[in-house]
What does this fold into?
Amino acid sequence: MECDDIRLKFIDYLDNNLTAEDEKKLVDHIEGCEECRKELESLKKLVNEINENAENISVPEDFMDNIGQRALKIGPPVIKKKKAPFKILLIAAAILIMSMATVFATKNPMAELIKLMNPEPRITNTVNNGVGKRLNISKTDKNIKITITDVVADDIQTLISYKIEDLNNGKEYNIRFDDGIIIKERWGNQIKDTNIEMYTSLFNNEGKGILTLFPIDTDNKTINLSFTKLEAKTGDTTEIIDGNWNFQIPIKKYQGKSYNINATIKADDYVINFTKITISPTLTKINFNCSNGGKKNERINDLEDIRIVADGKEYKPYNFGHESWIPYSTVGYGDKEMTFDSMYFDNPKNVEIKVNRISTQITEDKPKEFMVKLDETSPQEFEYLGTKLVINDLKVSDNITFNLKQPINSSKFETLNIVFWPFNGHSQEKHFTGAGNYNEAYYIDKDNNKYGYYDALLIWDKIRTKNPVLYIANTSYKLHPSDGLDIKHEKFIRMIIDGYNKTVFVNGSAKVKLR
It folds into this structure.
């Protein structure tokens, strides 16, 4: 099985829904493919964070079953990196993945994050500047009216905004993401096994939404879009309405401008090269690559808290249905890209790219191993890099559950890269599935102020100059043994730490002329 096929099965693997044959193929593959293994670990953390915040968010029951295909296959990629540190995953879980499904936010601060990333005002601004078109095409079925309000298209994406009105009861309906959209035309990359034949992303809240598609393949195109299922959620009950809301939508594509650039920022021997800027009506895109300057066992995970400044105006990284949002963006060692607010209507001639910090991954020459006793009910202490780690609340039944605590504000590391193996080694027949839920996470700044994770994101612009760093205080693990592993006869499991992540503050910049 190739990497793409393997990644399509990640969600089923995490949910223990694979057949024995498919699970064996996947385990065999990730044993020999570091990139897929790292990506799976990243996805485990992402899914766990969504589960951990279930009290704040309610999504369709089969949402995560469908995200596996979309999140790992769509382009530009949402998750495509060698190792995603915890902060990226939380943003992906809380914001990017939310934008890809019908989301019902009920509590702060998650609801406030959703409001912050709503692309609707940006679409309105784009149309008001003469790019795109205000349509106001309405169709009514089952006494529910859907109106296509605006369409904006450029060489990066196609955006269609809509609103839903219940003409009888005023109930709030949303588009059903997984099986409620049909688009007759086919263009761009296509997603297998879905009614939606191209990259599709939804921001859906309070009866209004944004449908995001690949850029159309011609300068002008009329597409046939049908909404066939809506849903309304009340508490734990989901009401599904079948219907037919069919639209013919005329689309005109606007071209952006691309500039090849050669800008470099160096930090602690790490090198960041910016190679291209594309300025389109809906967003700005920057291409870049990174190298570790010859550092052994060290590499850049992420560029963090990046800004573009032009003529005194600051442009932030942002998710318009594609990329990571404030304050982080993905990085790898090939050519990568990140997206920002659009500079199209400002038409800048000179820009400055600012990098405030980078997240680095340090890998051990030889992973550190610790033996965890399965028959020990009292806390077990371990030491890594002079820092005490504690495993407690350990229980063994059909699976193994426990908490892993670590001190916050450690001078040695911020987050750890940990796996758990059976005592006699990890194999196809004997292994664990499952991962940890990070259920205590804090940002601590240089003045030792502590912020809850989501609280910090909401006030990031106010605290970013204080160099806040993310720490994990507690992780809850649930390990599921494979069929060939009888944990009732096991005395130990192995905790393996192969490295850790640490922030490097850069405060570097590069100035570029756009010609």
Observations:
- Residues 49-108, 189-200, 319-332 have pLDDT under 50 and may be disordered.
- The domain at 131-254 is CATH 2.60.40.1630 (Immunoglobulin-like).
- The longest strand covers residues 350-373.
